[in-house]
Design goal:
Helices cover about 40% and strands about 15% of the residues. The chain has eight helices and six strands; from the N terminus they run ββαβαβααααββαα.
Length: about 220
């Protein structure tokens, strides 16, 4: 039985963020986001995503940001061979005080989706650690293409997610991540000066770490 890698992108993102990775594995696939049902639980949503996976193979999950949370939730449902999370978190204590406060006060529900999307585009370059004009344009295209229903649901899931620590994984994290500050992240491999978009602009370094881990 062979193994297969499944990539899971971040909130509102898609397979474009993985474009620069160079992974030495013959079988790779991308999980595509589904539109969540009204009041759908995170676990039920993960079960729907699993319909895109070959459950007869040994599964390797690579999740970025919210995709890392999804990957960890999938491991609670089925066994996986390896799990790699990038620019993500493993438990509630790795969120900074702003995220925890936003979750308690439900601040994300105060603003309509159009306002959240505008604010996201306005601040994206800063929070994602964008390095060039081309990266900025790509990020804005990704934000424009994101489904607002999915984004609202996913933000809510991130803010209320409270997971027990999972040490059976590889966690790669940038030392200048402004969304999940590295000062709160435990048990990780650091990418010096890496930001939240490092899956794209530091892909060579991340590829080396992933290839070494999955051998």
């Amino acid at each position: 039985m062979g193994s297969k890698i499944y990539f899971i992108s971040g909130l509102g993102a898609d397979r474009r963020v993985f474009a620069n990775l160079k992974i030495d594995h013959p079988s790779q696939s991308h999980i595509e986001w589904e539109i969540p049902f009204k009041n759908e639980s995170l676990q039920d949503y993960c079960k729907r995503l699993m319909a895109q996976m070959d459950l007869n193979s040994e599964i390797i999950l690579i999740g970025v940001s919210f995709g890392g949370i999804i990957a960890q939730e999938i491991t609670k449902i089925i066994p996986v061979r390896k799990i790699i999370i990038i620019s993500s978190i493993k438990n509630n204590s790795e969120k900074d005080w702003q995220l925890r406060l936003s979750g308690k006060l439900s601040l994300h529900k105060v603003f309509p989706a159009s306002v959240l999307k505008f604010l996201n585009k306005l601040t994206a370059d800063y929070y994602f650690g964008i390095k060039s004009k081309d990266e900025s344009l790509l990020l804005r295209r990704i934000i424009d293409d994101a489904n607002p229903i999915f984004n609202e649901w996913a933000i809510d899931q991130i803010l209320k997610w409270d997971n027990a620590s999972n040490n059976e994984l590889l966690h790669i994290h940038g030392t200048k991540d402004k969304i999940f500050p590295v000062s709160r992240i435990e048990n990780h491999l650091p990418i010096k000066d890496g930001g939240h978009f490092m899956i794209y602009n530091r892909a060579d370094e991340i590829s080396l770490l992933i290839n070494d881990y999955i051998k």
